[in-house]
Design goal:
Elements (H helix, E strand, L loop, with lengths): L1 E5 L5 H11 L4 E4 L9 E6 L15 E4 L5 H4 L10 E2 L4 H19 L2 H9 L15 E4 L3 H12 L4 E5 L9 E4 H11 L2 E4 L13 H6 L4 E5 L8 H9 L3 E6 L19 E3 L13 H12 L15
Parallel strand pairs: 1-2, 1-3, 3-4, 4-5, 6-7, 6-9, 7-8, 9-10, 10-11, 11-12
Helix pairs in contact: 3-5
Bound molecules: NADPH dihydro-nicotinamide-adenine-dinucleotide phosphate.
NADPH dihydro-nicotinamide-adenine-dinucleotide phosphate binds next to α5 and β7.
Length: 308
């Protein structure tokens, strides 16, 4: 019986060494050298499975090395009744929080204007905003909560929008479509950290931008298809939005002639907010391997009905 590793190979040796040290009885096979298909009980995959996973008839569990599992869930190659877990790791949360905090500070300190002034050798001092902008996080899950805590530590007014209402200390919580307008109306920087589901596809659109205070900014680190790209350009060109930081796109890599590259109010980053790497979440992978073999629920198991 074996664990099949079919995810990122760069750096995977770190993970294999960890697994071997913690449990030498685990037999690791690396895609495409699967051996007998019937011997594979656990699979580690990334964004998409490299093969039809239904061929592994004794599969008991699957672990994604990515936090977002939309691509996997949309694949017909996924056995419908085998538990799937997504990646949750401190390292990933830290990277994401650093990215978002860095861009929030860049927006409020006018980083883009300062860089333009320097390019033209202009000594242009900016006055600081009278008060810190309120920041709203669409999707207050594993990643969103960590960002919220770090922004609270910098004394920002932070709110979050979720599906299921609950309490978070120091954070105003809004839930469901009914409370979205109020959430948007109070925030002049909105961060999107929603998983891609049928309910969040296209959610960053003209109607949503229009509900934010004029001159607001967005930071989009969720998934590309959540953003209506043409609507964003219009909102920036009319001044409804003043800045956008976009890390994820409908088409990746972003095509060379895409208007986002040269738009003066858009910062483009190539899906690097929190990159998965082999070895990240090794303890989670080990734990979920043992849970799968024992027939127990996985940690961070994906709810296939809600799609995340
Ligand atoms: P989680 O599953 O922990 O959190 C998702 C959050 O979104 C939850 O708070 C959930 O609400 C909320 N949510 C989901 N659907 C809706 C909805 N229809 N309406 C309102 N709220 C909703 O995910 P993570 O925080 O771990 O990751 C979030 C996403 O970030 C990933 O799915 C991935 O797409 C993206 N990501 C991007 C990366 C990058 O480099 N750009 C790297 C890693 C992840 P509730 O709490 O009520 O369930």
């Amino acid at each position: 019986m074996a664990l099949l590793y079919a995810a990122e190979t760069q750096g995977a040796a770190v993970l294999f060494e960890f697994l071997h040290r913690q449990d030498p009885s685990i037999e690791i096979r690396v895609w495409p050298d699967c051996g007998q298909d019937s011997e594979i009980e656990f699979v580690v995959v990334s964004g998409e499975a490299p093969t039809d996973l239904r061929r592994f008839v004794n599969l008991r569990g699957m672990q994604s090395t990515w936090a977002g599992v939309n691509a996997l869930l949309n694949s017909r190659d996924l056995p419908p009744d085998v538990p799937l877990a997504r990646m949750v790791a401190d390292e990933m949360s830290n990277w994401m929080a650093e990215y978002v905090v860095y861009h929030v500070l860049d927006i409020i300190r006018g980083g883009s204007d300062l860089r333009s002034s320097q390019a033209e050798c202009i000594w242009q001092q900016r006055t600081h905003l009278a008060s810190k902008p309120a920041i709203g996080i669409l999707g207050l899950g594993e990643l969103g909560q960590d960002i919220a805590r770090k922004l609270l530590g910098l004394n920002f007014d932070v709110s979050g929008w979720v599906r299921t209402k609950r309490q978070f200390e120091g954070i105003s919580i809004y839930s469901g479509p009914g409370e979205l307008p109020e959430f948007l109306g109070r925030n002049s920087i909105v961060v999107c950290l929603l998983p891609l589901t049928e309910h969040t596809r296209g959610i960053l659109n003209a109607e949503l931008f229009a509900r934010m205070p004029r001159g607001s900014s967005i930071i989009h680190v969720g998934r590309g298809p959540q953003l209506m790209e043409g609507d964003l350009i219009k909102a920036l060109d009319t001044g409804q939005l003043s800045r956008a930081v976009v890390d994820v796109f409908a088409q990746e890599p972003l095509p060379e002639h895409h208007p986002f590259w040269s738009h003066p109010k858009i910062t483009v980053t190539p899906h690097v907010a929190a990159i998965s790497r082999a070895g990240m979440g090794a303890a989670l992978i080990l734990e979920n391997y043992h849970r799968a073999i024992a027939g127990r629920e996985l940690l961070h198991q994906v709810d296939r009905t809600s799609g995340y």
